[in-house]
Structure formats: structure tokens, C-alpha cells
Amino acid sequence: DTEVTQTPKHLVMGMTNKKSLKCEQHMGHRAMYWYKQKAKKPPELMFVYSYEKLSINESVPSRFSPECPNSSLLNLHLHALQPEDSALYLCASSQGGWGTYNEQFFGPGTRLTVL
Amino acid sequence: EDQVTQSPEALRLQEGESSSLNCSYTVSGLRGLFWYRQDPGKGPEFLFTLYSAGEEKEKERLKATLTKKESFLHITAPKPEDSATYLCAVMGNYGQNFVFGPGTRLSVLP
User: Nearest by CB to A111, which of B41, B89, B100?
Assistant: First the structure.
């Protein structure tokens, strides 16, 4: 089973709202990732968790706050977002820890619209 | 700095018209090259991993090949359902994250 699940599929929020995106995988993968993707662009890495510890934060604004409650779950907490944050947010996982040369498996994404 | 380019940017084919997509890379010691397919509004779907020059992998109508400078994704007798954006990504010795190319948007017309 090579499935990464994400909820919700769609999210519309105001600039003063607080919301969370959720990602789950049950493949025993040890690295989990958050990416942001704008239309007609490749995914941009935001955060990497390796063995449940934050390994990479690609200079992401503090209005995005990741959390890894356990080895299967990854959350992205959103607060005071801007309209330019509207995008497809993708979660991915890979078998080895961060830095191992494994393929990443992506979830279906959450389409976020900030009004 | 690791870099990936893909060509063409967009490609239109008639059903059954075979072609190839190119992924050229500059990386300090290639550790892996990855091909993905992405449908609009969905997450990338993993296709292939290639680790060394000369390696080839096949899946249905797709075949991926790798040289020291580039990779090709050959599509044989494509069908309309092969229409998607094809992304390649690399990992090098000194980078530990994927470096994605900009993608090739493929349209296969019936």
C-alpha cells in the first residue's frame, strides 16, 4: 500500500482564521514532507520531518506551523494567512530518513484558498 | 547548485504518436533521478527511480532511460489518458532534498 492521505481536500479560509491540514501514511516511512505548489509550477519544499523531528524548514513564514504527533501523522497549522498563500499543499513520505535516496510518495493534496 | 531543466515545456501528440520527454540535470554526483506524473489539481504520482547511467525502467507505455547528463521518458503509442504533466527530480551528493524540474505538459489527442 503506497498511499498517503490528506484532509481536507479543499479549504477556504479568511485571513484571520486558524485551520489545520492533516496528512497520514501507514507505510512505515520515516521521513514526511510538506510542499506548496502554485499553478503550473513544480512543488516547493516547505518542511521535512525525519524520525518525527523537524529536519528542514525552508525559511517558511511563521504563519505556517508544522507538527508531527507520531510517525504516521503530519499536521500543518495555518494562522493569519495571506491571499498569496493560496495553493495546493502536498504531503509526501519516503522510506528512509531525510537524506536517503528514496522516492517520495505524494498525497492527493489540499487545495487552499485564502480570502 | 543542482539544476534541472525539462523540454519541451508542452507537447501535443496524436493518439498513437510516440515521442520522448527530456530531463537535463546538473548535479554534484547524482544519487537518484525520479519521474512523476501529475494530473491537474492532484498530487504527483511516482513512476520511476533511476540511479546510474545506462539504467532503464519500463511501465506500460512508458520507458525511462538515464545518461550522465540527462534522462528521457519515452512514451510509446500514447493514449488520451496519458495526458498529464510529467515532472522529473534529482538528488545529488550534497543536496538532500529533491530538486524538481519545471515539468512537461503532455496532451494526447484522440
Answer: B41
Contacts of B102 in chain A (CB under 8 A): 41-42
Lookup: cell for B51: 540511479
Cis peptide before A8 (omega within 30 of 0): yes
Q: Are A76 and A89 in contact (CB under 8 A)?
A: yes
Of A2, A88, A104, the CB nearest to B98: A104
CB spacing of B43 vs A99 below 8 angstroms: no
Cell 484532509 found at: A7
pLDDT number for residue A102: 87
Rounded Cα gap, residues B63 and B58, in angstroms: 4
For residues B50 and B31, the answer to whether their CB atoms sit within 8 Å is no
Q: Which amino acid is at B18?
A: S
Rounded Cα gap, residues A38 and A30, in angstroms:
27
**Residue A56 has what pLDDT?**
84
A94, A34 contact by CB (below 8 A):
no
- The grid coordinates listed for A34 are 510538506
Nine-digit cell string for B79: 493514449
Q: Which residues pair with A54 in a beta bridge?
A: A49
Give the three-state DSSP class for B28: coil
pLDDT band at A100 (very low <50, low <70, confident <90, very high): confident
The Cα–Cα gap between A102 and B75 comes to: 24
